[in-house]
């Protein structure tokens, strides 16, 4: 009964894991369309490639590890495609950093672990050695989006945090935690339990800043619409004034001009604006008492200018 239940949970885990591995397809379709990686980071895909490759190796050397090997093998193929696309469309500096990381982790470390396990480690220790490495890398895979979470909090925008990836990572961690309990596999259970906690944190942050992003976009849209309306009104007023001048003037033209002159700004404000530069220049030669009296009682200067 326990073996059958673990097999069913494992199959469900395979399905969810495939959904996790395919969730960045939307992200990379945008990257290919724009021919730019924008603010996306390559670290999650490089680390996930190493993790899935090692889990595939773990499933191969573990008795009864078929479900672990098949799903992670498929995931490794997809992650390799994502890393390749990232290297193609990333800016030069980001591409060089990601390529170095890929060479170190997915070529150097992966090859060394496989060679060391097959050639130098005793048979009874192989599974433990690879299992510990897989557990550590899985924790790193779940923790790698923390850099994206920091950017979301800083920018107060979820534009560069893919919701599907965070959601399916949470489901994936939960189902594989259950599977680990059923088959009593410590190396699968611990990292996925941690991943479940981190996945929950990502969704909480997403729900918080999703509404803020929408609100900021709506404010920006309103400002753009208001600016467009203002520009349109100025253009229409200019066209109206030009039409009146071409029509030969008259009382309407004079009234419009007087309206523009008389009501564009309040008269006291016009006087203040006119007198302010003179007050600044004059204050350079005044003592402290005179400066205070000049700025505290500006209406006296206004009266003097108007007389």
TrEMBL record:
BP terms from Gene Ontology: protein homooligomerization
Keyword Transmembrane: yes
Entry coiled-coil feature ranges: none
Pfam families named in the record: MtN3_slv
Molecular-function annotations in GO: sugar transmembrane transporter activity
Region (Disordered): 241-265
Keyword list, A-Z: Membrane, Repeat, Sugar transport, Transmembrane, Transmembrane helix, Transport
GO cellular component: endomembrane system; plasma membrane
Subcellular location: Cell membrane; Endomembrane system
Membrane-spanning intervals of the chain: 6-22, 43-61, 67-89, 101-121, 127-148, 160-182, 188-209
Broad class of where this protein is predominantly found: membrane
InterPro entries with a match to the protein in the record: SWEET, SWEET_rpt
UniProt topology in membrane: Multi-pass membrane protein
Protein family (similarity comment): Belongs to the SWEET sugar transporter family.
Function as written in the Swiss-Prot or TrEMBL entry: Mediates both low-affinity uptake and efflux of sugar across the membrane.
Listed name of the protein: Bidirectional sugar transporter SWEET
Organism: Rhamnella rubrinervis
Taxonomic lineage of the native organism: Eukaryota, Viridiplantae, Streptophyta, Embryophyta, Tracheophyta
